[in-house]
């Protein structure tokens, strides 16, 4: 197996990939290929250059990752696994102290989570976005400019020869990002006691007005909903897809019945994948 991921080395996405595959013996270790963006990693999996892509889906503070949502909404990809990774951020630079930092580089999701810290500790500093947290660390190390620092996961400092100036920058100490492993085909992951199924409902012309009816089809069959997210189709204002994560496996009767009931309302329901639900204990 070759996995595409948002690189370079030292991103939270790489941590997610390692957590997904903790039990593989070192001599059978799958190849990991870094890509410069989430979209590029997804395209590599779509083209068959890599077998799957591990990409961020949602952060508990900043919300969804648009590139991943767009690709899932196009329904060419399936989800085969999920993993949650706690995210905590460090400020790192080649030299100097926190007070000397004038430009802070990082991924927009990371900058967003560290906004409060930046406003209070570095009110005069400018921010520059990078394709990932590790890309920011690498850029800062390569440029070697005084006053430039990156926000990234602490291990990125060691990888790129930077010094940690401060830790715990995130607004929420318990911040978590959910990552998914996606591929053009659903791989029928081994069943476990706790399954999750991801579905994409296209709401059609009636739009959001139909949402309560859709949700009710699952509720009346005793199926719990764990995630709901609307995503624009791009066609017009008010035209949405609905992402739903529900408890249970696609091969169970209540879930089949609920999907058929939604379809009977004239709506398209696309199956994105059934896979073991992540539990922190397993990680
Ligand atoms: O830049 C990284 O290290 C990533 O893995 C991306 C990403 C994201 O897309 O949200 C992942 C987790 C953190 O919330 C910050 C950045």
SSE order and pairing:
Elements: E1 2-6, H1 12-20, E2 31-35, H2 38-47, E3 52-59, E4 63-64, H3 66-73, E5 78-86, E6 90-93, E7 103-106, H4 108-113, H5 115-121, E8 126-129, H6 133-143, E9 148-152, H7 155-160, E10 163-167, E11 176-183, E12 195-202, H8 211-219, E13 225-232, E14 240-247, H9 253-264, E15 268-276
Parallel strand pairs: 1-2, 1-3, 7-8, 7-9
Antiparallel strand pairs: 3-4, 3-11, 5-11, 6-9, 6-10, 12-14, 12-15, 13-14
Residues 6, 11-13, 56, 59, 65, 87, 107, 109-110, 132-134, 177 line the site of prephenic acid (PRE).
Protein name: prephenate dehydratase
Pfam family, one: PDT
Enzyme class: lyase
Folded structure, characterized:
With 283 residues, the chain is an alpha/beta fold. The chain folds into three domains: 2-86 and 176-183, Periplasmic binding protein-like II (D-Maltodextrin-Binding Protein, domain 2, 3-Layer(aba) Sandwich), CATH 3.40.190; 90-167, Periplasmic binding protein-like II (D-Maltodextrin-Binding Protein, domain 2, 3-Layer(aba) Sandwich); 195-276, ACT domain (Alpha-Beta Plaits, 2-Layer Sandwich), CATH 3.30.70. Helices cover 28% and strands 33% of the residues. The chain is built from nine helices and 15 strands. Strands 1, 2, 3, 4, 5 and 11 form a six-stranded mixed β-sheet that branches. The chain has a five-stranded mixed β-sheet with strand order 8-7-9-6-10. A four-stranded antiparallel β-sheet has the order 13-14-12-15, with helices on both faces. Helix 8 runs antiparallel to helix 9 (253-264). The two termini are 21 Å apart. 39% of the residues are buried. The model has no long low-confidence stretch (mean pLDDT 93). The structure holds prephenic acid. The site of prephenic acid has 15 residues, from helix 1, strand 3, helix 4 and helix 6.
């Amino acid at each position: 197996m070759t996995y595409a991921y948002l690189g370079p080395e030292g991103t939270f996405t790489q941590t997610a990939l390692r957590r997904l595959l903790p039990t593989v013996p070192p001599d059978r270790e799958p190849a990991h290929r870094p890509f410069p963006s989430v979209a590029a990693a997804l395209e590599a999996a779509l083209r068959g250059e890599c077998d799957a892509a591990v990409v961020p889906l949602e952060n508990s503070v900043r919300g969804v990752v648009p590139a991943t949502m767009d690709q899932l909404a196009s329904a060419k990809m399936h989800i085969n696994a999920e993993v949650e990774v706690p995210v905590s951020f460090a400020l790192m630079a080649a030299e100097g102290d926190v007070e000397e930092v004038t430009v802070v580089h990082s991924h927009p999701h990371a900058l967003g989570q560290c906004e409060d810290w930046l406003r209070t500790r570095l009110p005069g500093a400018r921010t520059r976005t990078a394709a990932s947290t590790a890309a920011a660390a690498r850029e800062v190390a390569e440029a070697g400019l005084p006053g430039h620092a990156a926000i990234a996961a602490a291990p990125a400092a060691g990888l790129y020869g930077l010094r940690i100036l401060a830790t715990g920058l995130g607004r929420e100490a318990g911040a978590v990002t959910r990552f998914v492993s996606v591929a053009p085909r659903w791989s029928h992951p081994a069943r476990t006691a706790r399954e999750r199924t991801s579905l994409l409902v296209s709401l059609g012309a009636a739009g959001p007005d139909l949402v309560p009816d859709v949700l009710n089809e699952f509720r009346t069959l005793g199926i719990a909903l764990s995630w709901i997210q609307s995503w624009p189709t791009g066609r017009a204002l008010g035209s949405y897809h609905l992402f739903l994560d529900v408890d249970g496996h696609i091969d169970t009767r209540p879930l089949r019945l609920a999907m058929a009931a939604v379809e009977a309302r004239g709506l398209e329901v696309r199956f994105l994948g059934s896979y073991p639900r992540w539990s922190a204990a397993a990680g």
